[in-house]
TrEMBL record:
Residue ranges occupied by any Heterokaryon incompatibility domain in the UniProt entry: 89-234
Domain of life: Eukaryota
PANTHER family attached to this UniProt entry: DOMAIN PROTEIN, PUTATIVE-RELATED, HETEROKARYON INCOMPATIBILITY DOMAIN-CONTAINING PROTEIN
InterPro entries, per database record: HET
Name of the molecule in the record: HET-domain-containing protein
């Protein structure tokens, strides 16, 4: 059975009530929308600004970043950010997929420090650079370009920093609907049928009828990106996420959770991973129950167990960033995926629907961080 949405234009009487969809995601409207969400967070969100300020004090800057302002049709790798506490950078969370991914290798590093033409990049990377420019963010971190993929020492050193890189991100851009780099951030929108109708004795308005767009929950739990185990920490650790879903944009930060088609906030506390993100950024208080805290971890483990890994031996490494953040906040002692303080409860688990996944081993991204 199909379900339908009745969206309206943003500046119409119905649109002002909150249910808006229908313009193209690539249009100026949407970069305006993403910018307005970002500005609202920067200017009015107390918890977000506190968390970001703290993260800025603690953070370790990435060794390499892409400078997206280098020229209109190119970017370049820039280095040496020691002591540069005010540098803001975006991060990308994406699926590598089975298509070839442009990578920095030992032999290409010097050239990429000079120039990386945009037309050599995948569609996703090109579009992420355009989004950064439209949001006036100069620096961008992308795993395949900012870690030297065929240098085991560099990979070991930089991948150990990965959780810090995402935690210190100004804004994480999540290419949720793209199964690989050829698909990009922007997808065709659902077609809407415009109907003129009378709302009251005086007012007329346009209503559009469309199939229901993918929801925040679909894009954040059932998208190609959501199936990647590594992507979970990339989603929880950054202070802000701009999610490029199949039909619309979504926004997540410590204080707001909203979608383009529904400007009203969804309940953060009821939603994983927002609940875990909020906990990790909160200050410890007296009388916090061990069980209430570990429950957030178990909820995360449920989501994590549904995800897939290219290499089965990454099962614990892909959790390390989250485990470190949880340990810092709770003071608990980590015990191979569980916590010593709640070990009896932690061991009481069972699988409700055994998975039949195999973990295909791939050799081409041997040093990549195991993306599917
Ligand atoms: Zn915010």
């Amino acid at each position: 059975m199909a379900s339908f949405a009745l969206p309206a234009a943003e500046d119409s009487p119905i649109g002002r009530l909150g249910h808006v969809v229908g313009h193209l995601v690539r249009s100026a409207n949407n970069s305006y929308l993403a910018m307005s969400w970002l500005q609202q967070c920067l200017k009015t969100h107390h918890i977000c600004s506190q968390t970001v300020s703290q993260a800025r004090l603690d953070r370790i800057l990435p060794t390499r970043l892409l400078d997206v302002s280098f020229s209109e049709d190119a970017t370049q790798i820039v280095t040496a950010f020691e002591g540069g506490g005010h540098i803001e950078y975006a991060t990308l969370s994406h699926c590598w997929g089975s298509s070839p991914v442009i990578q920095t290798t030992i032999s290409m590093l010097d050239q990429y420090k000079e120039i990386i033409p945009l037309d050599e990049l995948s569609k996703t990377f090109r579009e992420v650079i355009l989004v950064c420019r439209s949001l006036r963010i100069q620096f961008l971190w992308i795993d395949s370009l900012c870690i030297i993929q065929d240098d085991p020492l560099d990979w070991e050193r930089e991948s150990a920093k990965m959780a810090d890189v995402y935690s210190g991100s100004y804004l994480n851009l999540a290419a949720a609907a793209a199964a690989n780099g050829t698909e990009g951030l922007f997808f065709e929108r659902l077609e809407c049928i415009k109907v003129r109708c009378k709302l009251s004795s005086e007012e007329e308005d346009d209503i559009f009828i469309s199939n229901s767009p993918s929801s925040y929950f679909m894009d954040s739990r059932e998208s190609p990106l959501a199936s990647r185990a590594w992507a979970l920490q990339e989603k929880v650790l950054p202070p802000r996420n701009l999610i490029f879903g199949e039909d619309q944009l979504h926004w997540e930060c410590h204080e707001e959770l909203k979608s383009e088609s529904s400007r009203k906030n969804m309940q953060i506390d009821q939603s994983f991973p927002s609940s875990l993100r909020r906990y990790l950024s909160s200050k410890p208080s007296l009388n916090e129950e061990v069980s209430a805290q570990s429950k957030l971890w178990y909820k995360m483990l449920e989501a994590y167990s549904r995800c897939e890994l290219t290499k089965s031996e990454d099962k614990l490494p892909a959790l390390t960033g989250l485990a470190n953040a949880f340990s810092r906040r709770s003071g608990f002692n980590y015990a191979v995926g569980l916590w010593e303080e709640d070990l009896e409860m932690g061991l009481l688990w069972k699988s409700l629907s055994p998975k039949r996944h195999s973990y295909p081993l791939r050799t081409e991204h041997q040093h990549g961080h195991g993306q599917l």
